[in-house]
Design a protein that fits this description.
By secondary structure, the chain is α+β, with helices and mostly antiparallel strands. Helices cover 41% and strands 16% of the residues.
């Protein structure tokens, strides 16, 4: 399988990013990302269609900041 390097997180805080890009930015695997969504550690996605889920780049940046500070449980 070819190596995959996700594109960087968009600079615009209102831009949408998919799960793979978000997980990469947070430094976690895609399956862990979806587990955290299921557990409520990550907010539910914005559904653009039945098979397309996105999050706002600003939310992912804020979540990363909280993870670094050790307060990811606070939403």
């Amino acid at each position: 399988m070819a190596d995959y390097t996700p594109r960087p997180l968009p600079q615009d805080p209102d831009a949408f990013c998919r799960a793979k890009v978000s997980a990469h930015h947070l430094g976690i695997g895609l399956s862990t990302f979806w587990l955290w969504v299921q557990q409520g550690k990550i907010a539910p996605p914005i559904k653009l269609s039945p098979r397309v889920s996105v999050w706002r780049a600003g939310y992912i940046r804020d979540l990363q900041r909280k993870l670094v500070e050790g307060r990811a449980e606070e939403q």
